[in-house]
Amino acid sequence: MTNTLFPVFLKTDTAHFLIVGAGNVGLEKTETLLRQNPTIRITIIGIQIHLRLKQIVDSYANITFFERPFEENDLAEKDFVIIATDSAEVNLNVRNLAKGRGIKVNAADQPDLCDFYLGSIVNKGNLKIAISTNGKSPVLAKRMREYFTAIIPDTIDENLAVLHQFRSNHKGDLQQKLKDLNTITAAFSVQKKPGFWNKFRRLFAIN
Ligand SMILES: C[C@@]1(CC(=O)O)C2=NC(=C\c3[nH]c(c(CCC(=O)O)c3CC(=O)O)Cc3[nH]c(c(CC(=O)O)c3CCC(=O)O)/C=C3\N/C(=C\2)[C@@H](CCC(=O)O)[C@]3(C)CC(=O)O)/[C@H]1CCC(=O)O
Ligand SMILES: NC(=O)c1ccc[n+]([C@@H]2O[C@H](COP(=O)([O-])OP(=O)(O)OC[C@H]3O[C@@H](n4cnc5c(N)ncnc54)[C@H](O)[C@@H]3O)[C@@H](O)[C@H]2O)c1
């Protein structure tokens, strides 16, 4: 097995993230988290802070910043750590201390230090797709995000609302409910769109 990653969808309302490093990468990762949940709880540590990140910190009550070097106690009561300093030594130290406490770690440019990777995310209301290339090509993950964002209509969220309603109101037994749900979603079946995968193959020049 060469790809053993298991995607999960994390509830961010209850999670507290620690970001160590407040430069370009710290900024990018903060924006990435905020894009999914503007009220996500984040603590950021950095000796110096990127100007734009300072503006973000100042405008979000849910983000706390400490302008100093990382200390072990920063890990207290954190659920996840994103490591983004420009010192490989500091990054490794933070990772080892976090591991000792059972806290899961992402290190921006060091896959070997990561317990989890951040994915590229397609957002269509309640439909969310997370994309990974198993660390092989983040830029392809970005391209795939752009592709799926373009081809999936925004109105999919309206379809979801109707389906949710139907699902909640259905009075039949489970077998009947499943049958009916499959029937009313038949328009989304791949078999109904034979041209789709050919177009996809052409786009990515796959033989
Ligand atoms: C998906 C996304 C999420 C996010 O970070 O938010 C993400 N990277 C994104 C973009 C991106 N990152 C990089 C480029 C420059 C082009 C290139 O190198 O390809 C671009 C493209 C761009 O910016 O346009 C540089 C880079 N990234 C990593 C390395 C180190 C290495 O590979 O060894 C290097 C080289 C550093 C160097 O050379 O110095 C490593 C990782 N990057 C990952 C995630 C994880 C694997 C995800 C997967 O399985 O695919 C992993 C393993 C760890 C992690 O960071 O979680 C986000 C897309 C957001 C979007 O949707 O737009
Ligand atoms: N900028 C990018 O897009 C990019 C892309 C790929 C990889 N990287 C790598 O990622 C790392 C970070 O890049 P960057 O551009 O964010 O660097 P940066 O210099 O902008 O930021 C580094 C941050 O780490 C902080 N820091 C250093 N030692 C610390 C400590 N002991 N405790 C707390 N904070 C500490 C600094 O104060 C600063 O806020 C570098 O190793 C870089 O090579 C960067």
Polypeptide structure, described:
- The chain has 207 residues and is of the alpha/beta class.
- The protein folds into three domains: 16-118, NAD(P)-binding Rossmann-like Domain (Rossmann fold), CATH 3.40.50.720; 119-154, Double Stranded RNA Binding Domain; 170-207, no CATH class.
- It contains seven helices and seven strands.
- The chain has helices at residues 24-36, 51-59, 88-100, 138-151, 156-169, 174-184, 194-203; strands spanning 16-20, 41-46, 63-67, 80-83, 104-107, 120-124, 127-131.
- Strands 3-2-1-4-5 form a five-stranded parallel beta sheet, sandwiched between helices. Strands 6-7 form a two-stranded antiparallel sheet.
- The longest helix has 14 residues, at 138-151.
- The radius of gyration is 21 Å and the shape is elongated.
- The chain starts with 15 loop residues before the first strand and ends with a helix.
- The mean pLDDT is 93.
- Bound molecules: ligand PQ2 and nicotinamide-adenine-dinucleotide.
- Nicotinamide-adenine-dinucleotide is lined by residues 20-26, 45-48, 69-70, 84-87, 90, 108-109.
